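Protocol step 4 of 6: record predicted structures for both targets in the notebook before any analysis. Target 1:
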Amino acid sequence: MDSLFLLEQQAGQEGGGTLATVGMIGIWVLIFVAMYFILIRPQRKKQKEEDALRAGVEIGDDVTTIGGIVGKVIAIREDDETLVLETGSDKIRIRFKKWAISSIDTPEKQPKKEEKKSRKNNKNEEE
């Protein structure tokens, strides 16, 4: 009789252990999913936006590099992914890699962002 009782207890403990293991695995899966949506996905989205910005650089654009150098693009080489900037009143020319471009400061490309802001402000004023 006692041995039957001990077998039932062991079976109950093993079942609970299995359930606890499944629960623990589920928690780890949730942690990894949360990490993906909090860290990895936004970083990839930002990287795609930066790549699109750099691919959209054209001759005549005013750009700023990640080092803070401001200049006008006068040549683009697709074979080695570089561009030539002309900077300063002395018309100094410097060659940079495309990945070094931080922003495009051309006035024609800036109003798109300002239009969106002004539309939001107009909607807020109407309400």
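Target 2:
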Amino acid sequence: MRAKIVAVVAIVALAAAAVVVATAQTTANGLPSYTNGYQKWPKLNRKPYTKCGPPCAHAGVKNVYASKRKVGTKYPNGAVIVKSIAQRGDKPGLPSQVAVMRKASGRWRFVEYSLSGSRYSVLAQGQLCVSCHMRVKANDYVFTTP
């Protein structure tokens, strides 16, 4: 019996490790692989947003994309929302910032990336993002509505 329990625990641990590695993969430019092709996803805004705030965490010209549509009033697990934020002088196709929301187990994970050269790195994440998005809890923590 003990050997079976150990075997089950080992299998679960290996599966969990595989999930962590799969979700942690990044693209060549530093964004998570689950954002690949976001520019082709349905856009939530009709035209780019140019105004910001207050508060203003994402100043610039913004477009917001969603990998999945809402089901009722909430986005389903696995949904990814990407906000591209372009500044004057940005290279075409490479916004200076990219904010990402990913829903897993009923909770959003927030990470904002900043472009340095041709690679993105984490600018902000977690509680800093959540504290602002709490204001739109009724809209499943998403500011942009289609």
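Step 5 preliminary note on target 2. The first helix runs from residue 2 to 24. Residues 80 and 102 are 4 Å apart (CA to CA).
Proceed to step 6 after PI sign-off.
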